[in-house]
Design brief:
By secondary structure, the chain is mainly α. It has one domain. Strands 1-2 form a two-stranded antiparallel sheet. It is globular.
Length: 89
C-alpha cells in the first residue's frame, strides 16, 4: 500500500505543481482514483487493486483531505506512512 501511495506522489508531483491552491482531496485523491479506475481493470471489470487503492488513500484523506496540495510535502507523505504503520499495515 505504501508503494502505491509513494509511486503516485512521485508520478503526479509535477502535474500538481500548478494546482497549489486546490485541495488535496480534489486533485490529489481524485486524480489517483481516476487513474486506478482505468489502470486496475481485468477483463473489463474493476480489479481487486482498486479496493487497495481506496484503502491506501484513507490515511491521506484522514490527515490531509481538506489541505492545499502545496501542504502535501515529503513530511506529509511520511506522516501518512506512519499512520499506516500505526494502523498495523
Amino acid at each position: 500500500m505504501q508503494q502505491i501511495l509513494i509511486g503516485f506522489c512521485v508520478t503526479y508531483t509535477k502535474t500538481l505543481e500548478g494546482l497549489k491552491n486546490a485541495t488535496a482531496e480534489s486533485p490529489l485523491v481524485l486524480a489517483y482514483r481516476s487513474h486506478g479506475q482505468k489502470y486496475y481493470v481485468k477483463d473489463g471489470k474493476a480489479a481487486d487493486e482498486q479496493a487497495c487503492v481506496r484503502t491506501a488513500l484513507r490515511p491521506l484523506l484522514d490527515l490531509y483531505g481538506p489541505s492545499a496540495v502545496s501542504e502535501f510535502t515529503p513530511l506529509a507523505l511520511k506522516a501518512c506512512r506512519e499512520q499506516m504503520i500505526a494502523s498495523g499495515w
